């Protein structure tokens, strides 16, 4: 995994999160369905069944959003890496910039002191 591109790693992590999320959602759904089976009244049983159904719907929607976000991020990363890899490196500009000497400026305090000295004369 050390040599893997990060877009592959992003997609792999998203799959792991998706699997974990759906596993937990199914466990919770099963718990609510078990409570619905044990419920004494019809209203309580119906409420637990609705909660089980809503749990799966919400988890499915969250997993879909998670997967779409991960795909977008992985695609964006892969696109930017391809773009960087395809741009040529300008060698002459770098050498010319290295040869130029930086211009030294005097500190602002020294300029002010000279201006005051001139005014005093």
From TrEMBL:
Organism from which the protein derives: Bradyrhizobium centrolobii
Stretches for region Disordered: 86-121
Compositionally biased residues, Basic residues: 109-121
Protein name in UniProt: Uncharacterized protein
Superkingdom of the organism of origin: Bacteria
Compositionally biased region (Basic and acidic residues): 91-108
């Amino acid at each position: 995994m050390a040599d893997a591109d990060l877009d592959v790693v992003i997609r792999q992590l998203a799959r792991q999160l998706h699997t974990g999320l759906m596993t937990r959602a199914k466990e919770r759904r099963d718990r609510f369905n078990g409570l619905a089976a044990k419920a004494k009244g019809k209203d309580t049983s119906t409420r637990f069944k609705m909660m089980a159904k809503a749990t799966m719907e919400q988890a499915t929607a969250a997993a879909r959003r998670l997967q779409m976000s991960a795909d977008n991020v992985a695609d964006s990363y892969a696109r930017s890496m391809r773009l960087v890899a395809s741009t040529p490196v300008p060698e002459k500009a770098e050498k010319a910039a290295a040869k130029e000497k930086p211009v030294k400026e005097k500190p602002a305090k020294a300029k002010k002191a000279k201006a005051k000295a001139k005014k005093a004369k």
